[in-house]
Specification:
single chain, 167 residues, alpha/beta, Rossmann fold, 6 helices
């Protein structure tokens, strides 16, 4: 099954982490590939303590505000290659591709390559793809799509990101 969590609201990564926790509780093996991200996020401290969850980051850190550089492309391509291998080996029950939609949007990855990779997933493997701006062709390939919409956000009142809540 292929699930997509998209939209401009807060909570896409949080939702897939909740699913990873549920899968861990059921004894399933989970792989989380974080595209674009690099560095310490609070959830990584907790996930390291769980035996059946592995996390790898495929980014060089920080937001990509301007045009991505070659290093950004290399990290994303290496990440997609790793995901391709993981799917082929069928060693995990749940595979999360966190922020892959943004990697596509920023042209770090080609949509066609991502679609090719997810089509190879065995029927008994759950794939979760997160990030804003999920392309319509990706939504069409999914079995479940959740759009998280922002109605109100405290950032607009000047509140900064808080450790343990946003990161």
């Amino acid at each position: 099954m292929i699930q997509v969590y998209t939209g401009n609201g807060k909570g896409k990564t949080t939702a897939c982490l909740g699913l990873a926790l549920r899968a861990q509780g059921a004894g399933l093996k989970v792989f989380i590939g974080q595209f674009i991200k690099k560095g310490h996020y609070s959830e990584l401290s907790a996930l390291k303590k769980l035996a059946n969850i592995k996390v790898e980051q495929f980014g060089r850190g920080g937001f990509i505000i301007k045009k991505p550089v070659l290093k950004d492309l290399e990290f994303a391509e290496n990440g997609l290659s790793k995901i391709r291998d993981i799917i082929a080996k069928e060693a995990y029950d749940l595979v999360i591709l966190d922020e892959i939609n943004m990697a596509i949007r920023l042209k770090l990855l080609k949509l066609e390559k991502v679609l090719e990779v997810i089509k190879r997933a065995p029927k008994n493997m759950e794939l979760i793809l997160t990030g804003r701006y999920a392309p319509s062709r990706l939504l069409g390939a999914a079995d479940l799509v959740s759009e998280i919409k922002e109605k109100k956000h405290y950032y607009k009142k000047g509140k900064k990101a808080r450790k343990g809540i946003e990161f």
